Amino acid sequence: MTLDFYVKRDSWMHRLDPRVKLVLAVVLMVAAMLVRDFWLNLFLLVGMLLMLASAQIPANRFQWVFKLTVPVTIMIVILWPFFYHSGPCFFYVGPLPITLGGLIDGVAMAFRIISLCFACCSLLFATDQAKIVRACVKLGMPYKYGLTLAIALRYLPVFFGIITMVTEAQYARGLDIPKKNILKKLKSYMPILTAMLIAGLRNSDNMSNALETRAFGASVENRTYYSDFSMHSRDWIAIAIIAIGMAVFTYFFVILDVRLPNIFW
Amino acid sequence: MSIDATREPVIQAIDLEHTYDNGFQALRGIDLTIYKGDYVGLIGQNGSGKTTMIKHFNGLLRPTKGKILINGADATTLTVGKIAKQVGFVFQNPDHQIFCPSVREELAFGPKNCGMSPGEMKDAVEDALESFRITEFAEHPPAILGFGLRRKVSLAAVYSCRPTVFIMDEPTVGLDHRSARELLDIIGELNGNGDTIILITHDMRVICENTKRGIVLRNGKLILDGTTREVMSNIEVLRQTQIRPPQVIELSKELSAPDVAEFPLNVDEFINEFIKTKKAM
Ligand SMILES: Nc1ncnc2c1ncn2[C@@H]1O[C@H](COP(=O)(O)OP(=O)(O)O)[C@@H](O)[C@H]1O
Ligand SMILES: [Mg+2]
């Protein structure tokens, strides 16, 4: 099991400064959270998909995100019309009217969830994890926290590997995980969890020793970095485009409060 | 090794193949019979399929083709927990199984799972403590013992389930010479009592000085199977898999080509052989 989302390519997005991509991802996430309108949501989602496609992110990553969101989005589309009512009514469920407006708003909600996921992924798919952490540090996160984050990300696959081995080791001693009874099931996971915890603590102890023997913490002020990056003109252009996009959006949809025409009813 | 009708087979692999989910075929048709009382050294480069093969012997992996019989029963009909009573499996890293507040409880975990009665369990735990010479640490928390002791606890914890076959993945790695020797002595005692041992190790001296039978895997295929002496005298084949027998074997090969039957496996045997040859001259 690997948890590295990064797809190594040489696209315009991959070449952007990670800090710019971090900003872009945050802006897209905020947009996805603020926008309620059906058409704007659709526009945002399609825009993001086009952006990722132009960054040579392969189709299977898109599928993966969609699959991940399917359970939540289906739930929302089904439940939303029960709580939001507008426009023509289809039928009643008890006292609750099921309306076209509710259905459309539910679909818009689903788009928002998917957009949120893709906003995160726009960063993760096109940026090396180490670079994301470097970007955070360059933006002012203390190096110690940056390193902690990097190590945590780096060790996730290892951690899952250890889970497998610990589970196998306990199975081999006759541990049986009952399928039905949840309480018993939880209890029988204890040997696995405890062994994991002990192995994890031992690992972290070794790791901190290894870091210290390699002079971690010796000179925090003037440390240097193996891979460094700086803003190029393309990064400034990207920042400008993001800023203009935000300004236009805020002007029309927040200040002027423009409503897109309702063509549904 | 051809099938020996006079001995009792405990584990049989019949045309065993295993292909992982990602399409990689790690085992390519293995036919192998392990007999009761065998002391097998399993040899092969990293990635040759040793771990994949032995995980079939305790049911952690299921064959994608072929069959595994454990004491005559098809392994696919048994759960890992059931097999644990017959085949004990010691993993490479002792820290992957230690979780109890005391050594005694650690050793009781397996027997509990196997459904032993309290009386049986007590006997089994005491026997394990004694056999692995860790009685004095019975009340210690195993997680903070030294590595050599944790290793012993992990073996004893498998032993306490009372299996008759022991599979050990690199049990001597990370141990100093004395602890390794002590552990191998204990394993030798188990074998002396009639238990079957399958030992994975990269240490050819451990193989030569302890095991009775050698099995060599390469790229998921069995390329050598015979007495340790036969296997070790096959220097050319071993070389192909990047294995170098101990120097004493290479030396005797250089000096002459003695019959396999009198091929020396260790320094003592070499000296005896050498003196005999010299007297004859
Ligand atoms: N879970 C797995 N998925 C895919 N391939 C695997 C898996 N486990 C092992 N392999 C591959 O199978 C081969 C044999 O591995 P293994 O049995 O661990 O060899 P050994 O124990 O002899 O070093 C290796 O090439 C390894 O990469
Ligand atoms: Mg292995």
Walk me through the structure:
The complex is a heterodimer of chains A (265) and B (281). By secondary structure, chain A is mainly α. Chain A has two domains: 1-141 and 236-265, no CATH class; 156-215, no CATH class. Chain A contains ten helices and two strands. In chain A, a hairpin with a 2-residue loop joins strand 1 and strand 2. In chain A, helix 2 runs parallel beside helix 10 and helix 7 runs antiparallel to helix 9. Chain A is flat and about 70 Å long. The model of chain B has no long low-confidence stretch (mean pLDDT 90). Chain B has 281 residues and is of the alpha/beta class. Chain B has helices at 50-57, 80-84, 103-113, 118-131, 147-159, 177-192, 204-210, 228-233, 235-240, 247-255, 267-280; strands at 9-19, 25-35, 39-43, 65-70, 73-74, 87-90, 165-169, 196-200, 213-218, 221-227. Chain B has a domain at 246-281. Chain A binds chain B through residues 162, 165-166, 168-176, 190-192, 194-195, 198-199, 202, and chain B through 55, 58, 60, 79-81, 84-85, 88-89, 91, 93, 95-100, 109-110, 113-114, 143, 157-158, 161.
